[in-house]
Design brief:
The protein is about 70% helix and about 0% strand. It has 14 helices and no strands. InterPro entries: MetI-like (IPR000515), MetI-like_sf (IPR035906).
């Protein structure tokens, strides 16, 4: 009886900790949602309140009419979705090569690729900007998408996943006379769904929420993604915080939907690639 009571007490402690962690995670979203419907007087008023006294939903219509918010939203979708599609293809090919193909300098090249993960973007942003500028791709979709077409983390993740697959699958394809490209596209890629979804979620969220890189590569509303545009909502002499938080709340919807849609594959993909 004492042992069972001890187990039950431990479960209640774990449940309490999980509730506290969930509350700490959800609270900023609740504050953002409530502030987006507060009048300016309440946003800057004292004492601060979580729930507004009066609700003002006018910012949800103003943000679509006073600024080209729909254009920013479309720019982010084009940027993030294009990077996801291209990087999944290139990272999977590179990961397969490092996991399955034997060639001279393979391990050294893989280590050099992993070393790039240790270099912060602030170190490479100036030479990257100069390269994109000299190629004439500043303030274009190409300038946003091409530098993000492949990354070390994606190559590493796909390599780890391919290492978990049995070699008998590809050997049977070679016995049947299949080429290496056919083995990759017909046998290996269909098995990569969990890893693809996981890497796709990481890549989509990373590019959708990025701020510094789009600010560096764009200078007009025609190509500016949503996060870079929201950063410019702050005024020189004052900021409409309800307006800014309304934009942030709308901008967070695609990432939440992407995670909810891919949650089932997300967990299994991380476990199978050995990232843990």
């Amino acid at each position: 009886m004492n042992r069972r009571q001890g187990v039950d007490f431990g479960r209640w402690i774990i449940l309490l900790l999980l509730i506290l962690l969930a509350a700490a995670t959800v609270f900023p979203f609740l504050w953002m949602a409530s502030t987006s419907v507060k009048p300016m007087g309440e946003v800057l008023g004292s004492p601060e309140r979580l729930l507004p006294i009066t609700y003002d939903f006018s910012t949800y219509s103003k943000i679509w009419s006073e600024v080209p918010f729909a254009r920013y939203f479309v720019n982010s979708l084009v940027f993030a979705c294009s990077v996801v599609a291209i990087s999944l293809f290139l990272n999977s090919m590179a990961g397969y090569a490092f996991a399955r193909l034997q060639f001279k300098g393979r391990n050294l090249l893989f280590v050099l690729i992993l070393c790039t993960m240790m270099i912060p973007f602030q170190v490479t942003m100036t030479p990257l900007f100069l390269i994109i500028y000299k190629l004439g791709m500043i303030d274009t979709y190409q300038g946003l998408i091409i530098p993000r077409a492949a990354d070390a983390f994606g190559i590493f993740m796909m390599r780890q996943f391919f290492l978990t697959l049995p070699r008998d699958l590809e050997e049977s394809g070679r016995i049947d006379g299949a080429s290496e490209f056919r083995i990759f596209f017909k046998i290996m890629l269909p098995l990569c769904k969990p890893a693809f979804v996981t890497l796709g979620v990481f890549t989509f969220m990373g590019n959708w929420n990025d701020l510094l890189y789009p600010l560096l590569m764009t200078n007009s509303e025609q190509f500016r993604p949503i996060q870079a545009a929201i950063a410019l909502f702050a005024g020189k002499y004052g900021t409409d915080y309800s307006f800014v938080l309304t934009g942030l709340l709308i901008a967070s919807v695609p990432t939440i939907l992407a995670y909810l849609f891919a949650q089932r594959f997300f967990v299994s993909g991380i476990a199978m690639t050995g990232i843990k």
